């Protein structure tokens, strides 16, 4: 496919970044906030008034059709349904105005200047974006690691005179009274988290988005991952909104739609400890304005730099070429909602994965990410620098976007990184230690062993979130390394089967695509770790460090999945509900950890546990049974057991599971 | 048949002004084409092939056997009519045939150079004459030739004649000819004089396994006339041009029966002498033939009043290898299973030769009036056309040109003779752009043609202009309307001018439902522009469209695209790629494979997806029954 080349790491030229804050530090913020803002526009059309947009939506054929249908089915008067639609739209719609954006630009840059050393934006990406917004409706798809993401995006676009985006935001933001309205005025529109069966809501929502895309009113921005990734690992993409924004193209209403993946990499994430707690089951604080003010403490700390990379715009048209037969949409009136056909769904799914991959590829990795990866495997300080330099070579070999200041001696880079993350690590006795939270805070240490364990886990998970930023670089070779290790023979076919099994098993955990095997082979052959012939895959002696590093990286996940399997086989009761699942697995894991039967406190992460469950559901080892109010889980113990054994390398992969997949 | 003559004279005495109207109309539409040297009434000659009519070459009709004596062998239309840039850089059309002939068009060269980035100095002229050695010697089936000679039918193996019948008017066909390149051509050309002659020829072809390719007006734009290169048999081109008589006119039932080879302008002229017309006016009507219309499902500009060819057709005779197919009566409609006419309509010469056709006629309308409306943008224009269609009050013709074509039309405006006129023009422009605030970059124009009684026309005009006003349309005068229709007839000549200066162009059409008109126009135009750019075309391509026909449920869209091919190593290849992409875009957006040009060989790759596999199978089984030996082997459609 034509657009494949866009993703090829070999072709990528790393663009130059410009620090957006540099100018802000030397010139007046007020002048900046009141600067003359003249963005380029789609086909030179002036932006559309929000009231006009609303009336376009409410009077669209699409909405009228659904209103009629709903009215017929429910017996409600059409006027009442229409009113309901109007109310939904009112609740949803943005009210983008320049004033609030200027306000945010002013206040946020002030904050940014104290929080961050720099905000680096790739200039070429901005130029590409400038070009493409004039030609096609644009959809901006940033990665989502922090609340800051979308405000940051808007501020950047404002700064560089690009059209302000309209952003799909979760309804929870609206809870913050003043801020919610402020966000609305800076371009956010709010959607309910779940509205599965509500036809009317869906119709209003999709028509609202489509109207904006169709008319190229403003760049549409949303998060493919659907929510902030608490683990800093890309989440598997959600397809709903992507489906909607592609529809105007598929139905011939626009010539093309440009999708622009944006990678936002934080050197240190504001929410780092918050996420870790959340993953361990301490519920996240509800978003509230006052909560945000309480978070002022964070303002005094140093959060390093942000890198924002605007990726190569991807044309939906070129992606669809030869994949989707658009004439299928010509056989019925376009305003009648219809479920996309299977091939369209699989197309949208592939596109979504590609885009997430594109986001990952352009994530800027900081030295600390490498250090965190090493630290989690346990490392002494003097070794650390040496190992980091080794890993730097490997990471570059694998084509990652590493931002390592080459002008400084490595030891200095390492100590700089460690000092930025004083909250996580401490150097003592020539070793680097993960800091226990309890020890960091003053006061008495935690009482029970369980609490101690959780404190360690918070630190480990925080640290892991940095390692996770590099996972996309390592995951394919790591899968292969593990497959080579655990396959029953060195036959290529055998290795491939084991690889496929692992890939399939971990498909909810990592962003994986078909064709990974070949890529992983190439990477490991290039780095000298493997030798691959037509028939055989052989591990090289000099590749041992690489292979064992990679396997160690994947090990916590494999162990975690085994723990989940074991729980389901050994402890789970008949009527286990979906809600009980996570706490129950957590208790089980805590027990194992305390007994010393499990090394990785990472396994306590609810993200991992949920992903494992999703995988088992997908594979059919566990079924959801709708029992009245509660959804219970029905476990096929035989299958789960054999999956666990295969994960642990006890069974050859071919026989047991793949046969059933 | 003898009574035809008296019919004609009596009718013309009853309605004397009809004849005047007819003549006036003909002047307007087609101009005087080779003024008939005699009275040229309806001839009721018997079939006299045996005599090898000496008079046939100097027949009073438009098309002689040796077409190249009158028409270009490697371009469009008459030898005497040609656009050129004169020494002052002004554009002229030579000859006397058209309204534009002899006038100076001052804006054309500017438009041409700025639109295409072309230069008047850079020329890419055609090979002036055909090199006979470039044509392969004919491969003749001796037995067939013997039989043919014994019938006394006129035929030839002259290279010029054979080359003339080896092509239609697709760009790639004309481009090759201009370079003097000739591919597979028919091995001989035969001119039947009547139905019975055709029966004889088809019999002989079946007997000796000779491939027959019917040839009517030669205006095909679907590669339908290209000889299949894989054809190993001798190919005979069956030129129907000498079968050009109106055999009778039935005033009681308002029908006329004519031989299929008669070309549009002759049919209208001859019927006009009796005060009638068919009202079927495809843009190619100067050259295309009655039989060709039936064989391709043609559509005429004024179909809103008269209908398309399938609506006009009352009876048709076709000679097939299995014999003659025809209905036993001349009735307006019948329920006798699937209509066999619909096997013939659109058969594109794959089943047999259409020899005689009975077609509906109408009295020539009393009054004809052109008109035009300018719209602030294309979207408004389409909305207006849709409304006119909804109210079913479309005039005889209503066409909407987009902004690019509007400008193109402007470029063709002849020099204004008086200062007053140019002042008026300026005033008009000022009013539209400054007072009404129309953006010259978005403005577009609809051209109208009203027909009927004087009163009805006025009333009709009022209604249509009323609707137009609701969509921001401003009446823009008769002249602009007239010019618009003029453009249709000369545009093909203009392509030859472009080709003299490294610009190649083509047109194609489709039909779409109303709700997709704008989408198809936008997407196809953009696709063309992009594909050209991607293929290395240096200067932005021109891609423009107009809505030419409206129906209850949709419209016909006509696209033009043209680009400057300097610097391209294989311009035809690029061109074909772009055309292919444009068609795919049309299909992807819900347009049809063709509204009236037909499928031929150019578009046959898409026929299966268009009519489904079973549908194609149905067509194939008809072909297998009617022509199992593939005597009619032009390989169109299937």
TrEMBL record, chain A:
List where in the cell it is found. Answer: Membrane
A Gene Ontology annotation in the biological process aspect, one of them, is: ether lipid biosynthetic process
- Record-linked CDD domains: LPLAT_DHAPAT-like
Which InterPro entries does this entry report, sorted A to Z? GPAT/DHAPAT (IPR022284), GPAT/DHAPAT_C (IPR045520), GPAT/DHAPAT_LPLAT (IPR041728), Plipid/glycerol_acylTrfase (IPR002123)
Pathway involvement?
Phospholipid metabolism
**Organism classification, top ranks?**
Eukaryota, Metazoa, Chordata, Craniata, Vertebrata
The record's listing under SUPFAM superfamilies reads: Glycerol-3-phosphate (1)-acyltransferase (SSF69593)
> Which is one Gene Ontology cellular component term of this protein?
peroxisomal membrane
Q: Major place of localization?
A: membrane
Any idea which UniProt keywords this protein has?
Answer: Acyltransferase, Membrane, Transferase
**Full protein name:** Phospholipid/glycerol acyltransferase domain-containing protein
Looking at the record, the residues that make up the Phospholipid/glycerol acyltransferase domain are 138-267
Q: Which family does it belong to?
A: Belongs to the GPAT/DAPAT family.
Query: What molecular function does GO assign, one term?
Result: glycerone-phosphate O-acyltransferase activity
UniProtKB/TrEMBL annotation, chain B:
Question: Per its UniProt entry, what is the enzyme's top EC class, as one word?
Answer: transferase
Listed GO MF terms: alkylglycerone-phosphate synthase activity; FAD binding
Q: Which SUPFAM superfamilies match?
A: FAD-binding/transporter-associated domain-like (SSF56176), FAD-linked oxidases, C-terminal domain (SSF55103)
Residues of the active site are 558 (proton donor/acceptor)
Q: Which GO terms describe its biological process?
A: lipid biosynthetic process
Q: Where is this site: Important for enzyme activity?
A: 399
Q: What does this protein do?
A: Catalyzes the exchange of the acyl chain in acyl-dihydroxyacetonephosphate (acyl-DHAP) for a long chain fatty alcohol, yielding the first ether linked intermediate, i.e. alkyl-dihydroxyacetonephosphate (alkyl-DHAP), in the pathway of ether lipid biosynthesis. Catalyzes the exchange of an acyl for a long-chain alkyl group and the formation of the ether bond in the biosynthesis of ether phospholipids.
| Record's keyword terms, sorted | Acetylation, FAD, Flavoprotein, Lipid biosynthesis, Lipid metabolism, Membrane, Peroxisome, Phosphoprotein, Transferase, Transit peptide
Q: Where does substrate bind?
A: 495
Keyword check for Iron, yes or no: no
User: Major place of localization?
Assistant: membrane
Q: Which residues bind FAD?
A: 214-220, 296-299, 348-354
- What does it catalyze? hexadecan-1-ol + 1-hexadecanoylglycerone 3-phosphate = 1-O-hexadecylglycerone 3-phosphate + hexadecanoate + H(+); 1-hexadecanoylglycerone 3-phosphate + a long-chain fatty acid = a 1-acylglycerone 3-phosphate + hexadecanoate; a long chain fatty alcohol + a 1-acylglycerone 3-phosphate = a 1-O-alkylglycerone 3-phosphate + a long-chain fatty acid + H(+)
Tell me the pathway: Lipid metabolism; Glycerolipid metabolism; ether lipid biosynthesis
State the family named in the UniProt similarity comment for this chain: Belongs to the FAD-binding oxidoreductase/transferase type 4 family.
Q: How does it assemble?
A: Homodimer.
Please report the stretch or stretches of sequence annotated as the FAD-binding PCMH-type domain. 182-364
Task: List the GO terms this entry assigns under cellular component, sorted alphabetically.
Answer: peroxisomal membrane
Originating species: Muraenolepis orangiensis (Patagonian moray cod)
Name the record gives this protein: Alkylglycerone-phosphate synthase
EC?
2.5.1.26
Per its Swiss-Prot or TrEMBL entry, what cofactor is needed? FAD
Q: Which InterPro entries does the record cross-reference, listed alphabetically?
A: Alkyl-DHAP_Synthase, FAD-bd_oxidored_4_C, FAD-bd_PCMH, FAD-bd_PCMH-like_sf, FAD-bd_PCMH_sub1, FAD-bd_PCMH_sub2, FAD-linked_Oxase-like_C, Oxid_FAD_bind_N
Question: Which cell locations does it reside in?
Answer: Peroxisome membrane
Which branch of life, at top level? Eukaryota
């Amino acid at each position: 496919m034509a657009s494949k080349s866009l993703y090829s790491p070999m072709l990528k030229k790393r663009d130059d970044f410009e620090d957006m804050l540099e100018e802000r530090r030397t010139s007046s913020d007020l002048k900046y906030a009141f600067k003359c803002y003249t963005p380029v526009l789609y086909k030179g059309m002036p932006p559309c008034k929000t009231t006009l947009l609303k009336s376009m939506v409410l009077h669209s054929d699409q909405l009228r059709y659904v209103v009629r249908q709903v009215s017929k089915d429910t017996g409600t008067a059409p006027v009442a349904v229409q009113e309901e639609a109007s109310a939904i739209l009112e609740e949803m719609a943005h009210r983008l105005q320049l004033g609030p954006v200027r306000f945010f630009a002013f206040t946020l840059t002030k904050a940014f200047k104290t929080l961050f050393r720099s905000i680096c934006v790739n200039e070429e990406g901005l130029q590409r974006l400038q070009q493409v917004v004039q030609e096609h409706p644009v959809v901006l798809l940033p990665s989502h690691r922090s609340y800051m993401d979308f405000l940051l995006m808007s501020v950047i676009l404002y700064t560089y005179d690009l059209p302000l985006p309209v952003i799909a935001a979760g309804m929870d933001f609206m809870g913050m009274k003043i801020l919610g309205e402020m966000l609305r005025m800076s371009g956010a529109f709010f959607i309910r988290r779940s509205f599965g069966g509500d036809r009317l809501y869906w119709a209003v929502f999709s028509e609202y988005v489509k109207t904006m895309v169709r008319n190229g009113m403003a760049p549409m921005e949303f998060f493919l991952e659907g929510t902030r990734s608490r683990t800093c690992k890309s989440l598997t993409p959600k397809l709903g909104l992507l489906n909607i924004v592609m529809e105007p193209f598929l139905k011939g209403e626009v010539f093309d739609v440009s999708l622009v993946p944006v990678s936002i990499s934080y050197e240190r994430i504001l929410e780092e400890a918050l996420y870790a707690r959340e993953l361990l089951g301490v519920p996240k604080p509800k978003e509230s304005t006052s909560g945000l003010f309480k978070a002022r403490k964070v303002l005094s700390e140093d959060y390093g730099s942000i890198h924002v990379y605007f990726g190569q715009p991807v044309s939906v048209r070129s992606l669809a070429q030869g994949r989707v037969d658009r004439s299928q949409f010509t056989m019925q009136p376009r305003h009648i909602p219809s479920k996309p056909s299977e091939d369209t769904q699989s197309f949208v799914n592939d596109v979504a994965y590609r885009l997430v991959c594109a986001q990952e590829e352009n994530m800027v990795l900081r030295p600390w990410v490498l250090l965190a990866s090493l630290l989690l495997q346990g490392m002494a300080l003097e070794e650390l620098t040496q190992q980091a330099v080794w890993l730097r070579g490997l990471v570059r070999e694998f084509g990652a976007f590493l931002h390592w200041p080459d002008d400084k001696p490595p030891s200095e880079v390492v100590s700089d990184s460690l000092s930025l993350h004083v909250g996580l690590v401490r150097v003592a006795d020539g070793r680097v230690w993960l800091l226990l939270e309890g020890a960091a805070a003053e006061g008495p240490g935690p009482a029970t062993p369980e609490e101690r364990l959780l404190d360690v886990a918070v630190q480990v998970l925080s640290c892991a979130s940095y390692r996770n930023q590099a996972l996309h670089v390592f995951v394919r070779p790591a899968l292969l390394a593990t497959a080579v290790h655990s396959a029953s023979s060195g036959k290529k076919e055998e290795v491939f089967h084991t690889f496929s099994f692992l890939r399939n098993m971990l498909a909810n955990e990592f962003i994986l695509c078909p064709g990974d095997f070949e890529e992983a082979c190439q990477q490991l052959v290039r780095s000298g770790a493997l030798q691959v012939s037509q028939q055989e895959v052989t591990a090289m002696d000099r590749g041992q460090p690489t292979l064992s590093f990679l396997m160690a990286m994947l090990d916590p996940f494999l162990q975690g999945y085994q723990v989940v399997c074991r729980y389901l086989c050994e402890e789970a009761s008949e009527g286990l509900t979906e809600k009980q699942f996570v706490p129950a697995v957590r208790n089980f894991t805590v027990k194992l950890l305390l007994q010393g039967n499990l090394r990785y406190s990472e396994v306590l992460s609810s993200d991992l546990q949920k992903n494992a469950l999703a995988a088992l559901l997908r594979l059919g080892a566990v079924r959801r049974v709708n029992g009245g109010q509660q959804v219970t889980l029905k476990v096929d113990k035989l299958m789960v057991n054999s999956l666990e054994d295969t994960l642990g390398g006890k069974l050859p992969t071919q026989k047991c599971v793949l046969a059933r997949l | 048949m003898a009574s035809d003559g008296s019919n004609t004279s009596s009718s013309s005495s009853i309605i004397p002004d009809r004849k005047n109207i007819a003549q006036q109309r003909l002047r307007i539409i087609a101009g005087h084409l080779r003024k008939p040297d005699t009275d040229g009434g309806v001839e009721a000659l018997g079939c006299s092939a045996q005599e090898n009519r000496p008079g046939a070459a100097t027949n009073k009709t438009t098309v002689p056997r040796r077409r190249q004596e009158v028409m270009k062998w490697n371009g469009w239309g008459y030898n005497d009519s040609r656009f050129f840039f004169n020494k002052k850089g002004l554009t002229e059309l030579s000859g006397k045939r058209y309204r534009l002939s002899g006038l100076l068009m001052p804006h054309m060269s500017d438009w041409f150079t700025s639109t295409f980035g072309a230069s008047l100095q850079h020329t890419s002229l055609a090979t002036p004459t055909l090199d006979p050695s470039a044509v392969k010697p004919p491969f003749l089936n001796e037995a067939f030739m013997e039989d043919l000679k014994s019938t006394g039918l006129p035929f030839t193996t002259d290279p010029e004649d054979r080359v003339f019948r080896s092509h239609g008017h697709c760009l790639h066909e004309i481009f090759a000819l201009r370079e003097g390149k000739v591919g597979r051509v028919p091995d001989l050309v035969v001119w039947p004089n009547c139905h019975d002659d055709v029966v004889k020829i088809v019999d002989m072809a079946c007997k000796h396994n000779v491939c027959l390719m019917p040839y009517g007006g030669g205006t095909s734009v679907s590669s339908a006339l290209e000889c299949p290169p894989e054809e190993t048999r001798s190919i005979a081109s069956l030129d129907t041009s000498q079968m050009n008589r109106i055999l009778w006119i039935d005033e009681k039932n308002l029908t006329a029966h004519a031989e299929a080879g008669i070309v549009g302008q002759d049919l209208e002229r001859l019927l006009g002498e009796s005060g009638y017309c068919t009202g079927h006016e495809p843009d190619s009507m100067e050259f295309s033939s009655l039989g060709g219309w039936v064989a391709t499902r043609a559509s005429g500009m004024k179909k809103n009043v008269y209908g398309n060819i399938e609506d006009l057709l009352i009876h048709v005779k076709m000679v097939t290898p299995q014999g003659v197919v025809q209905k036993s009566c001349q009735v307006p409609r019948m329920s006798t299973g699937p209509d066999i006419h619909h096997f013939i309509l659109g058969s594109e010469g794959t089943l047999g030769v259409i020899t005689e056709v009975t077609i509906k006629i109408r009295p020539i309308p009393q009054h004809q009036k052109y008109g035009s409306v300018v719209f602030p943008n294309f979207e408004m224009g389409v909305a207006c056309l849709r409304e006119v269609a909804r109210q079913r009050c479309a005039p005889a013709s209503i066409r909407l040109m987009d902004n690019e074509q509007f400008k193109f039309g402007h470029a063709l405006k002849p020099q204004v003779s008086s200062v007053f006129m140019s002042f008026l023009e300026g005033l008009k422009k000022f009013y539209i752009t400054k007072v009404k605030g129309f953006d010259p970059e978005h403005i577009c124009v609809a051209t109208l043609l009203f027909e009927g009684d004087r009163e009805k026309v006025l009333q009709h005009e009022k209604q249509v202009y009323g609707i137009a006003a609701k969509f921001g349309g401003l009446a823009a005068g008769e002249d602009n309307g007239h010019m618009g229709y003029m453009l249709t007839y000369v545009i093909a000549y203009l392509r030859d001018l472009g080709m003299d200066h490294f610009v190649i162009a083509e047109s194609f059409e489709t039909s779409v439902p109303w709700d997709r008109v704008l989408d198809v126009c936008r997407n196809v135009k953009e696709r063309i522009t992009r594909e050209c750019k991607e293929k290395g075309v240096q200067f932005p391509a021109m891609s423009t469209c107009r809505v030419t026909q409206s129906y209850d449920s949709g419209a016909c869209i006509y696209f033009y695209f043209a680009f400057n091919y300097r610097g391209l190593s294989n311009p035809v290849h690029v061109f074909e790629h772009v055309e292919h992409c444009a068609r795919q875009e049309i299909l992807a957006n819900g347009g049809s494979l063709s509204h009236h040009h037909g499928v031929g060989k150019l578009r046959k790759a898409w026929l299966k997806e268009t009519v489904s596999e079973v549908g194609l199978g149905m067509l194939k089984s008809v072909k297998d029954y009617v022509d199992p030996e593939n005597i009619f082997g032009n390989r169109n459609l299937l």
